[in-house]
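S.,

Sequence below, as promised.
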Amino acid sequence: MGSEIPSSHFSAADFEAFHASLRKETGVLARWFETKRFAFSGNSFGLEVEFWLADENYLPAPQNKEYLAALSHPQIVSEISRFNAELNSSPVPAGPDSLRRMHDDLEGLWAKAMLAAEQMGLHAIAIGSLPTLRDTMLGLEYLSDMERYRALNQEVMRLRKGRPIQLDIDGRDHLQVTRADIMLESCATSLQIHFGVSPEQSVRYFNASILTSAPLVALGANAPYVFAHDLWDETRIPIFEQAVKLPSFVDPAGQPIGRVSFGSGYLRQSMLECFLENLDGYPILMPARLGDNPEKLAHLKLHNGTIWRWVRPIVGTSEAGPHLRIEQRVPSSGPTTVDTIANVAFYLGLTHALGSAQEAPEKNYPFTTARNAFYESARRGLSANIKWIDGKEWPIQALLHDRLIGQAKAGLADLGVDKGDLDFYFDQILLPRVRSGRNGAAWQRSYISTHGLDFQGLVARYCELQKEGAPVHQWSV
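The prediction came back faster than expected:
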């Protein structure tokens, strides 16, 4: 989804040509898997952080076009709405200084993002959902000025045959909203973590990423308030799934699979399975004409970018050759850079630990159980109870504290990450967060419990503490 497309107006011939190119490129990808064509020089890590622009009253500011023009930085780019933007870190190889380099890069980019906002009288805020946003503030006039977003809105509504989108979330409160466009998608901003893997690792690590989704979403939950309603700890999950809800297919267990979903099952042989599912299971949304070279996979990558599995397979192409990545999409944006890197460290470490275990843990852990654990964790955060891969029912706070944080730390140690950095992120950030029960969602609720329904005050205090940079478990209200 990162690349612009030439036009948002399509003919029947465009859809036919795109599908033909998509089928051809999927065949190219199949041959690459068969012939082991992929380049791999070691595991690598990367991240993307979506964020909000807010005005002096901490209300969403639809000024990303002017903001990005003033900032003029290739790693800070547009998002779907005019009050969102996204920064992209540089990938780093796995090694002793991986976490330090990611932290420094993110700090540098975030400092530039905040400074550019301040110079315009705005605030840049990394948070899963902005509590001051109201549904009346959404509208197509706030869609970012790019063809790809116009096309996305147009084609989603066409496939829905004009039926309005219904947002219906039952949390601590009950929220129901109806819209005739896809702007609800802009209510949710995320951290996306990239893990570069070898073809030999890809199946096990992809499945391990599915397993890590439940504890990861609980650990980093930061989106309890949407439209002044107290909903899930990570309300981004149901928002996004419902905001672009489209007819798709039914998995072998009879579960309807949407455009945004937890997926239809574990991988068995290769990541190719997802791309074959993309080809036949999901209608084309953006049939842009992108050239005739099938080895660039331009149509395949664009189509994959419009299918939002919470764990998404990525095929990259470069001069060194094609390569594979896993994109983990479940964590919220924020609260601080140190919290973000700690969340990244947890995901990477636990995924490596589970993915390299002697026996694949998913063999004895049904996909439906993993899916149930994920949604329970998104709903209740660190208060969730889930069934884990050992067959036991766990309070997720105890599971994280007693088992998973140590397992993730050992996983990154096995990848050669510096012990001092591991001690810092795991022992000084993650363990105290879990002991205190204070992730971003818990802090936001604590603020409202103390001060009443003052969402502008909440965002003002959040913004102040985010700039100070202390981890969220140390924040006061």
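The chain has a mean pLDDT of 96.

Coffee later?
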